[in-house]
Amino acid sequence: MQANKLLSLVFVFDGRSVLLGLKKRGFGQGKYNGFGGKLEAGEVMRACAARELREEAGLSVPAAALVRRGVLNFHMLADSGMKGADGTIASRLEVHVYSCSLGDAEGEVAESEEMAPRWWGCDQVPIGQMWADDAHWLPHVLAGGDVIGDFTFADQATLVSHSLDKLPPGAMQLDEHRTRRLRVDHLVYGVPGSLDEACAAFEAATGVAPTKGGVHKGLGTHNAIVALGGAEDGSCGASCGYLELLALDPAQQPRPERVWMAMESVAARGEPRLVTWAHTPARGLEACAAAAAAAGYQPGDVQ
Q1: 36-58: b (≥16 Cβ within 10 Å) or e
Q2: What is the Cα–Cα distance from 93 to 162, expressed in whole angstroms?
């Protein structure tokens, strides 16, 4: 699973005016936005936000003066994500939003190779010249509130689905660890007996035929999967995750000593049941495993 690309986004306020920049090149070219960019190795997010503001708009702001305003998660479909220097395309973007006052800044607003800054009244921002998601969350931020949002784009111009939590002012500052909703990746539904029979029963009940998944070699199980969400809204297998039908694999004989998800208990009881669920690790599997080890858990080898 691709780890989220971490980015900052800063809005500078002067009373009831906000500084926006017209992107001159690269990802989002031709759109107005706040100032920000990619988190660099060894950098913390506030330092990233302060650096990007200085590089793109000429303003130097102490990292401590940046007010945390929100976290926005983006899923970019059809290779519409952010292209890196190595040519790879990041389709999962996690944007940390900050604001600051012009009174906390040193220097003069200046155009850069990346952005052309311009002041706008908070009630006159050019929403039609901004990313399509901005219409949903930016007015709340301009009014003083905080946000947590998830957005799916079919391409850089087409927003196909979104969800948004509008939080009261200061909510993100009070809880610095508040970053996102728990995003469920998939549900694991254990079935006794034949996986083929379970798939047939599922199709008969729902009209949807599960897709054969794979074999968990050495763990005694195999599976089939069903996307939870329609492809027409871009959520298939992404925003809404999927359902996994899990069964013992009769081809794996003798049965391994360790059976995946304790499926032998499902088979012994003879009743299907929800075995567990999994969430999307925003930081990537290796980072999550390292964090678990640091907390005293032993996740084992990550494969």
Answers
A1: bbbbeeeeebbebbbbbbbebbb
A2: 14
**Burial class for 296, CB neighbours closer than 10 Å (0-12, 13-18, 19+):** exposed
C-beta separation of 201 from 192 below 8 A = no
Q: Is 24 left (phi over 0), alpha (psi -120 to 50) or beta?
A: alpha
User: What distance in Å separates the CA atoms of residue 265 and residue 220, rounded to the nearest whole number?
Assistant: 13
Residue 222 class from Cβ within 10 Å (0-12 exposed, 13-18 middle, 19+ buried)?
Answer: buried
The dihedral built from the CA positions of residue 138, 142, 143 and 146, taken in this order, carries a sign that is: positive
Binned average pLDDT, 10 residues per bin, the chain of 303 residues? 79 98 93 95 93 97 95 82 70 92 97 97 97 97 94 89 90 66 77 96 94 91 82 39 92 89 89 86 63 72 68
Residues comprising the chain, all counted: 303
CB distance 2 to 238 below 8 Å: no
Tokens of 95: 């944007």
**pLDDT value at position 286?**
67
pLDDT of residue 85: 66
Residue 84's identity, in one-letter code, is G
Q: What pLDDT does residue 177 have?
A: 55
Cα(242)–Cα(1) distance, rounded to whole angstroms? 14
Question: Given this model, what pLDDT does residue 281 score?
Answer: 58
- Taking the CB of residue 218, how many other CB atoms lie within 10 A of it? 10
